[in-house]
Amino acid sequence: MPTDRPSDRPRTLGELRASGHELRGVKDEIRDNLLAALREGRDPWPGIVGFDTTVLPQLERALLAGHDVVLLGERGQGKTRLLRSLVNLLDEWTPVIEGSELGEHPYAPITPQSRRRAAELGDDLPVAWRHRDERYTEKLATPDTAVADLIGDVDPVKVAEGRSLGDPETIHYGLVPRAHRGIVAINELPDLAERIQVALLNVMEERDIQVRGYTLRLPLDVLLVASANPEDYTNRGRIITPLKDRFGAEVRTHYPLALDDEIALIEQEAELVAEVPRHLLEVVARFTRSLRESSAIDQGSGVSARFAVAGAETVAAAALRRAALTGEERAYARPVDLEAVPGVLRGKLEFTAGEEGREDEHLTHLLRTSIAATARRHLRGIELTPLAEAVAESPVRTGERVPAIEVVAALPPIDVLTEVGRRLGAEGTEDPGPMASAAELALELLYLTRRLAKDASDDGETVSYG
User: At 154, which helix (H) or strand (E)?
Assistant: First the structure.
């Protein structure tokens, strides 16, 4: 969030009027800025991957219509990230009454305090400028969320000062009123208790708030957006029908539909402590997608995109650990590092009933099929028989305890490995890491297609032989 407030902008109500500034509602503001981005060919959704032709067009139509929106999808589908990106559609700076509790526009004060100040000061009403990042409010719905958190409550300190209980100025405003002229995002909306959901009804439709038995009419200007799991967001779930009816648009999200989108998401989100070649990221992406299609995994809970990100980070960590153990200067991931993924991330998955005791077997099988599919894609058309024959005569030792330079030194000097290295990005470098990684993938393909055998020892070494 920028810390430098603009110094060349109007500082009083009179100066603001003289500048020609016009008041727009937050939904009009978002509509205008979205249309400007679309007309100019700018991407209104930086960092959002895989929704270009599905989710984003629906969301854009909802925003242009001025609707409050709920995003429906399983965990890890990018709902929160998408909600947070809405802030980019607000004006970078907007004027507010300086010192106002709700960030009211100087042209339209809504609280008794601000109206009184505006009447007393006139054109001398002081104006401050608020950045768009300050106009986004997010709340994770939890069962213990209270009406006071979202709407407000009587402030006992103000009552103790001598004000009457019915005085509107005794109210301490909650998150929704404080988001006036901004965006309110509620994650996991159905997790709110029913009485809290009821409290939101007037805010969404009549734009007033009710606290402790009396109603304070506040023409709140907010865009209310929310996220929910589809199973909960039904009449039979945990959402009350009147609140469901208040949202103008329900947009379904999804996991990345294309493999390349899944890989792009990993590349964008993962914080890798070692270099991981793209073909290994592809293995992680395929593994994640296989889990989403597996009958052994509870698909109701989903397989989050965070699983794929964490998987890539685990591969990088395994490479870094191996480099430390073997004394390699550069940590470069190899297929052997993929073996760490199932054990580390198993707890992020929920298996269906009847799979007890078979979890590791199932994960290992899906990982191997993902490795084989990736290897076939990148090495298609290369005849690997000469490599299989050469390794049958002179076994190759690999594994997490074997440095890349020893793997490369043990490889037979045959042309097919040159082509394998070229396909997998190991050309033009003196570092043995890329070539060792490429060769290991080819050897793993030969093993998975039963053209080579291999033995694994307890000390982390694997010997491939014919």
Answer: strand 152-154
pLDDT the model gives residue 153: 78
What are the tens digits of pLDDT across the range 382-413? Answer: 999 999 999 888 888 888 889 999 999 999 99
407 near 398, Cβ under 8 Å?
Answer: yes
Rounded Cα distance between 157 and 170, Å, is 8
Q: Is 228 helix (H, G, I), strand (E, B) or coil?
A: strand
| Residue 327: C-alpha distances to residues 17, 85, 331, 401, 458 (Å) | 69, 43, 10, 10, 20
Question: Do β-strands 152-154 and 171-173 pair in parallel, antiparallel, or remain unpaired?
Answer: antiparallel
CA 60 to chain centre: 19
Beta bridge partners of 69: 225, 249
Is residue 179 within 8 A of residue 219, CB to CB? The reply is no
SS3 of 31-87: the string is HHHHHHHHHHCCCCCCCCCCCCCCHHHHHHHHHHCCCCEEEECCCCCCHHHHHHHHH
Q: What's the pTM value of the predicted model, to 2 decimals? A: 0.86
Q: What is the DSSP string of 172-222?
A: EE-HHHHTTTEEEEEETGGGS-HHHHHHHHHHHHT--EEETTEEE-----E
Decide if 147 contacts 188 (C-beta within 8 A): no
* Integer Rg of the chain from CA: 29
Query: Which H or E run includes 462?
Result: strand 461-465
The 3-state DSSP class for residue 310 equals helix
286-290 contacts, C-beta under 8 A, 24 or more apart: 286/259, 286/370, 286/373, 286/374, 287/311, 287/341, 287/366, 287/367, 287/370, 288/262, 289/255, 289/259, 289/262, 290/366, 290/369, 290/370
Residue whose token pair is 């490479």? 319
Query: Other CB atoms closer than 10 Å to residue 394's CB: what's the count?
Result: 11
Cβ–Cβ < 8 Å for 266, 272? no
- CB-CB contact of 311 with 289 (8 Å): no
What are residue 340's phi and psi, to 5 degrees?
-80, -20
**N-terminal to C-terminal alpha carbon distance within the chain:** 60
pLDDT in tens, 113-138: 899 999 999 999 999 999 999 999 99
- CA–CA distance, 207 with 401 (Å, rounded to integer): 65
